[in-house]
Amino acid sequence: MSRTRCQDSAQKADSAIYKALLESTKAIPWKLDWHSMEFVYIGPQIEQILGWSPESWVTIDDWANRMHPDDRHWVVDFCVSQSREGADHEADYRALTKSGEYRWIRDVVHVMRDEDGNVEALVGFMFDIHERKRTELELVRLQKELEALSYKDGLTGVANRRMFDETLAEEWAGARRHRQPLSLILLDIDFFKQYNDHFGHVQGDESLRQVAQALAGAATRPRDFVARYGGEEFVLVLPETDARAAHLIAERCRNQIFKLQIAHPLSAVSQVLTVSLGLGTRIPGHGDEPTAFLRQVDECLYNAKQQGRNRLVSLA
Predict the structure, then answer these.
(1) Which residue among 15, 79, 113, 293 has its CA within the 20 to 30 Å range from the CA of 215?
(2) Do 287 and 162 share a structural domain?
(3) Co-location of 45 and 166 in the same domain
(4) Which DSSP string corresponds to 259-310?
(5) What is the pLDDT of residue 21?
(6) Mind telling me the catalytic residues?
(7) Confidence (pLDDT) at 13
(8) Tell me, what CATH number does 80's domain have?
(9) Based on the domain organization, do 89 and 173 belong to the same domain?
(10) 230 shares its domain with 270
(11) How many CB atoms neighbour CB 130 within 10 A?
C-alpha cells in the first residue's frame, strides 16, 4: 500500500473517530459556513432534544426562526456582531421544539478564520440547559417572592415598617428634587387595648386587617402608599399631594373606617371603632430630613388623641 493511500486511510479513520465522539456526546455539535450562511453539519442529537431532523437545518434562518420571539432579536444581533468581530461567544435562548414547546439552549460558538484572518466558518455546541434554567428561574421567582414578603406586614397584608422607611426616604428625595409637595398621614386606632382586652386578640387581629383594607381602599392613586407603622398605628405616604388634597384623603380614611361599624363598647368616644389622625404636608428643601417631618406629624397625632380622639389634626 502506498504512503499516500495509508495517509488517506488514517485521515478517514481519524475523521470517523471524531464523528463518533461528536455524536456520542449529549451536546449538539454544528458547523456553519460564514459566506453562504448554510449549515455544513449538525449532529443527530438535535432530533432527540428538539425534534427537528438534522436535514431540516439548512441555513441560519432555520436557526433564527426556531427561536422564541422574545429572544430572537437580541440573540441573532449579538451572535452575528460577535462573529463578525471574530470573537468566540455564547448565548442562552429558548429554542422551539417540533411539538411547539420551547427548551432552553446554550449555544457556545468558536469563530474559525482563514490564513488571511477572515471569518470563514462558525463551529460550536448547543447544550440542553432546560432543567438547569428552569431551576434558576424558579429560584429567582422564589427570591423575589421572599423579598416581597419581607416588605409586607404578615397580619394585615399591607406594607410593613421597613418598606415604609424606604418609601418615605425615596419619595422625600423625589419631592425635594422636583419641588413637589409630599403629604404624610399617621393614624392610631382609638382605645385599641381596651378592644383587645374585651374581644380577645383573634378578633383584634381581624379588626386590624379590616382597618388596613379600608385604608388601602381610601388611598387609590397609583403612588399612594399604605403601611402598618406598628401595633395599631398605620401610615400613608401621599406623593405630589398638597395639604387640601391630603386633608380630603385623611377624612376619607376616617369615614371608611367608621363605615366598617366595628362595635367597640369600651370606647370613650363612640360605640364603634374610630381612629385619630395626624397630617402634614411639606415641599422638602435642602437640608430638610424626613425623620424630622415624621416627628412633626407624630406630634399632630398625639395632639389629636389629647384633644379627645376620633379627629384629625394637621400641621400649621
Answers:
(1) 293
(2) yes
(3) no
(4) HT--B-TT-SS-SB--EEEEEEEE---TT--HHHHHHHHHHHHHHHHHTTSS
(5) 46
(6) 232
(7) 46
(8) 3.30.450.20
(9) no
(10) yes
(11) 18
Q: How far is CA 30 from CA 44, 91, 138, 195, in A?
A: 10, 15, 30, 74
Grid coordinates of 181: 409637595
Specify if 48 maps to a domain. yes
Q: Which of 121, 53, 63, 122 is nearest to 93 (CA)?
A: 63
268 in a structural domain: yes
> In terms of domains, do 263 and 197 share one?
yes
Task: Count other C-beta atoms under 10 Å from residue 178's C-beta.
Answer: 10
One domain, residues 306 and 179: yes
Q: Which amino acid is at 260?
A: L
**One domain for residues 119 and 7:** yes
pLDDT of residue 134: 87
pLDDT band (50, 70, 90) for residue 151: confident
Q: In what order do the strands lie in the sheet with 102-113?
A: 38-42, 28-33, 119-128, 102-113, 89-96
CA-based end-to-end distance of the chain: 108
- pLDDT of 15 higher than 80: no
305 assigned to some structural domain:
yes
Which domain does 79 fall in, by range?
Answer: 3-135
Instruction: Count helices and strands (H / E) in the chain.
Output: 10, 10
* Structure confidence by residue, pLDDT tens digits, 196-226: 999 999 999 999 999 999 999 998 889 999 9
pLDDT tens readout for residues 211-264 = 999 999 998 889 999 999 999 999 999 999 999 999 999 999 999 999 999 999
* pTM score above 0.70: no
Cell of 197: 382586652
Together in a domain, 243 and 302: yes
Mean pLDDT of 68-84: 95
